[in-house]
Write a structure and sequence with these properties.
By secondary structure, the chain is mainly α. It is built from 9 helices and 4 strands; from the N terminus they run αααββαββααααα. The structure holds zinc ion. The site of zinc ion (ZN) has 8 residues, from strand 2 and helix 4.
Length: 244
């Protein structure tokens, strides 16, 4: 999970949120509750939040990735607009821009109607997840055992096999790139002329560029990769050499 920055509210929402919301609230009042509105009546009342302009604006801010697990569900067509505070409990927030999160179907299904108002979990638009999560091998963990981090991991299923498998693959790649970096550093240190040193320093810079690509916000699991590199010795040594 990484920090996300919310884009300005889309025009379609500015123009219609009041009407959409009051129509929904009127139906709730006349049927005696959100869950009591018949499905065929409820769908057309709520599905405005799936408008293409809302989706594109929202998904762009997360680079088409799930806000919770950082997979790219867009590739398989499963990215959804999720209501952070569930609309079934807080229907007044059905068209609230700040309540929308881009989410994969798996995380959305796992979170379900978890009441984030009563039992808050991490919202990456509001806080920096880096302050709440660490990783241990291929598992995400709550930094210093913090309660909100733990609850987020459990609620969204962030240590399920579907996420640990790709993390394991990335870990193998990161390991092999860090090995290359280590070799490049050794070569650099063994260079016996200034010219060789310059060339070998460039090689280090090239290897760094490759490994740092994993941490770009556009990449899947970039939070995980960032954490790995923080404690990766060859990476930190290479950075120092480049800055010399
Ligand atoms: Zn997800």
């Amino acid at each position: 999970m990484i920090k996300l920055n919310r884009k300005p509210k889309p025009k379609i929402l500015i123009q219609n949120e009041k009407t959409w919301s009051s129509n929904l609230m009127a139906a709730i009042a006349s049927h005696g509750g959100y869950s009591k509105i018949p499905k065929e009546k409820k769908e057309p009342l709520i599905n405005h939040y799936k408008h293409k302009d809302i989706k594109s604006n929202l998904f762009e801010s997360s680079r088409q990735k799930c806000a919770f697990c950082e997979t790219k569900p867009g590739e398989s067509g499963n990215i959804e607009v999720e209501h952070f505070a569930p609309k079934a409990i807080y229907p007044n927030l059905t068209f609230e821009w700040s309540n929308f999160l881009p989410c994969c179907r798996k995380c959305n299904g796992s979170k379900l109607d978890h009441d984030t108002v009563q039992e808050p979990i991490i919202n990456p638009y509001n806080v920096d997840p880096e302050d709440f999560f660490d990783y241990q091998d291929i598992r995400i963990t709550a930094k210093n055992n913090n309660a909100i981090g733990k609850l987020t991991i459990d609620t969204c299923g962030l240590n399920s096999v579907r996420l640990m498998e790709p993390r394991a693959k990335i870990l193998i790649s990161l390991n092999s790139y860090s090995q290359s970096l280590e070799d490049a550093i050794t070569n650099y240190k063994n260079a016996d002329t200034a010219a060789k040193k310059t060339i070998r320093k460039r090689k280090i810079a090239e290897s760094l560029e490759i490994i740092e690509k994993f941490t770009q916000p556009t990449e899947v699991f970039s939070g995980y990769c960032k954490f790995y590199l923080k404690t990766c010795e060859p990476f930190n040594m290479a950075k120092k050499i480049i800055e010399e």
